[in-house]
Amino acid sequence: MTTGRCLCGDITFTVKTKPTGASVCHCGQCRKLSGHLWASAQAPVAEVDIEGAVHWYASSATAKRGFCPRCGSFLFWKAHDEDMISFALGALDEPTGLTLEKHIFTADKGDYYDIKDGLPQK
Length: 122
What we know:
The chain is mainly beta.
C-alpha cells in the first residue's frame, strides 16, 4: 500500500494497489497550479481511499483537479470519463518504490528549462 497526505494533513489517501504511469506533466495548467511541474502516478478510483474534504475544481470540460481547501495542496487529477485517478508523487509518504517513467505534454513546457534526464517525452 502507498499512502499520502496534503501539507496540513487534513486530507490523507491510501492507494491499495501498485501505482502506475509515474510521470511529470509539463502542460500549462499543471505548471500554473503547481508553480512549475506536476509529478503523478495513477490507480483505479476503486483502489484509492481518500479521507478528508477534497475541493474539486473543474479545470476543463474533460477533467477535474482535487485540492485541500485548508492548505491548498494540489493532490488529484481525474478525467470525467475514466475510472483512474492521478495523485501527486510529492504528496506520497516515502519510500514510494516508484520511478518516473516519462514526461507528458512536453510541447507545452516552459521556456525556462530543458528536459535532459533521458526519459521518454510525449
